[in-house]
Amino acid sequence: MSLVSEATTPQKLTDEEIFAGHVDGKLSVETTAPLDSQRALSIAYTPGVAQVSRAIAADETLADRYTWTNRLVVVVSDGSAVLGLGDIGPRASLPVMEGKSALFKSFAGLNSIPLVLDTKDPDEIVETLIRLRPSFGAVNLEDISAPRCFEIEERVKEALDCPVMHDDQHGTAIVVLAALKGAVKVQGRDITSLRVVISGAGAAGVACANILLAAGIPDVTVLDSKGIVSAGRDGLNDVKTDLAARTNPAGREGGLIEALDGADVFLGVSAGTVPEEIIATMADNAIVFALSNPDPEIHPDIAHKHAAIVATGRSDFPNQINNVLAFPGVFRGALDAGARRITEGMKLAAAEAILSVVGDELAVDKIVPSPLDPRVAPAVAEAVAATAKAEGVTE
Predict the structure, then answer these.
(1) Which of these is catalytic: 12, 26, 66, 100?
(2) What is the C-alpha to C-alpha distance for residues 365 and 321, in angstroms, rounded to an integer?
(3) Distance CA 161, CA 129 (A)
(4) pLDDT at residue 5 in the model
(5) CA-CA distances (angstroms) from residue 348 to 173, 208, 216, 378?
(6) Which fold does the domain 15-167 belong to in CATH?
(7) pTM, 2 dp
(8) Please, where in the chain does CATH 3.40.50.10380 lie?
(9) Residue 216: which residues within 8 A CB-CB, separation 6 or more?
(10) Treating both helix axes as pointing N-terminal to C-terminal, what angle do 376-391 and 344-358 enclose, rounded to 10 degrees?
(11) Do 179 and 311 contact (CB within 8 A), yes or no?
C-alpha cells in the first residue's frame, strides 16, 4: 500500500463520513492464489490439503512454512481501557482493534486479526491465549486496564514462546524515547542530564518511566491522581511501590507544582490537565510532551509560551508522538528474526531507528518522522531483527 511521506492537516470529519468508513468493518480475508479451476481447488483444499496436514502432523515446525501462523499477529483486548473512552467492553472495542490490525497490514505487511475477549479475569485471558497458541505467531495486547495489564503481559510472555507486547505500554514508551532523543539532539543537550516528570502512572506512564531509566536518565519523577509516587506514600499498589523505589531520587513530595518546578521535561500520559502557570515554572529550554487524546494536558499554543519544544499525540500539530511509528516495525522485525520474545534491547533499538529516519530534517517542529513516512517501519524492523539476533533470542 502506498503511503504519503508527510501528514497533512486533517479536515473536520463528519459523523456520516466516520460511520460510512466502518460499515461491515475495516478488515477482510483474501486468498493468496486464485481458486478458479478444479485443479486449484484440489490443491488448496481436498484432496491436496491432506498431504500438507500429514506433513505438519509429522513435523509441527512445518506449520511456519505452510500456514500463515508465523506472520499472524493477534490484537487482543478485553475492552477495559479503550483510547480515552475507558471500560466500554469487548464489542465496543472491536472497531479500534480492527483499526490496529489494518495498521499492521498497511505499515508492515503483516497479517493481523482482532481478538476481543468477554472476560477481565487474568487467568481466563492467559488460558485463552495458551489454548489458541497454534493459531498465531505474535500477540499485541491492547487497551487492557492497569494494573491488570502488567500481570497479564508478564504471564502471557512466560507462557508463550512467541513475541508478546502490550502496545499501550511499550509502543508509547519507544516513541517517547525516540522523540526525547530527537529533542535533546536539536538542543545539543545530554539526555542523561534531564530531569523528567511523568504525569500518569498507568500502563503508558510506567513503561515510559522504565525505558527512560534504561536510556540513562537518572532523575525521573512519576505522578498519579494523588500526587508524586514516592517511597513514603501510603496506599501504593505493587507496581507503584516498585516504581517509587526506582524513581524520584530527590525524594520530592506533593503534586505537579512541586514536581515541575525547575524540571526539564513534562510528559503527560494521563487524562488530566496542567495549568499554564505550572508549566511556566519549568527550566529554560523546557520540553513538553502533552500526549493525552483528544485533548492534550495543555494546549500546544500555550505550552509554546514557556517551552522550547512541544509535542502531542494529535495529527494536527507538529511532532505527533504516535504508536504507529513503533509497533508495526517492532513486530515485523521480531517475526522476521524468528524471535521468541521482545526484549528491552529490541525496544531501545526501535527508538534509535525511528530517530534515524528523521536525519537532516531534524528540527524543533520535527523531532520524530511523520507516522505516514514509509521509511519508518522497515528501519525499525531491521534494527529490531538485528538486535534479536545479537541478543540470541531467535529460534
Answers:
(1) 100
(2) 12
(3) 12
(4) 36
(5) 10, 12, 11, 16
(6) Rossmann fold (3.40.50)
(7) 0.91
(8) 15-167
(9) 191, 192
(10) 150
(11) yes
The secondary structure of residue 246, as a DSSP letter, is H
Task: List every span in the chain annotated with CATH 3.40.50.720.
Answer: 168-395
Convert 27-47 to b/e letters by CB count within 10 Å (16 or more is b): eeeeeeeeeeeeeeeebeeee
Q: Which three cell numbers stand for residue 78?
A: 478485553
Domain range 168-395, its CATH number among 3.40.50.720, 3.40.50.1000, 3.40.50.300, 3.60.20.20: 3.40.50.720
Look up 45 and say whether it is catalytic.
yes
Cell matching residue 214: 534504561
Cell numbers of 54, please?
500429514
The amino acid that residue 329 corresponds to is: G
Which residue out of 45, 66, 226, 305 is catalytically annotated? 45
**Among this protein's residues, is 66 annotated catalytic?**
no
Per-residue model confidence as pLDDT tens digits over 189-241: 999 999 999 999 998 999 999 999 999 999 999 999 899 999 888 889 999 99
CB 256 within 8 A of CB 199: yes
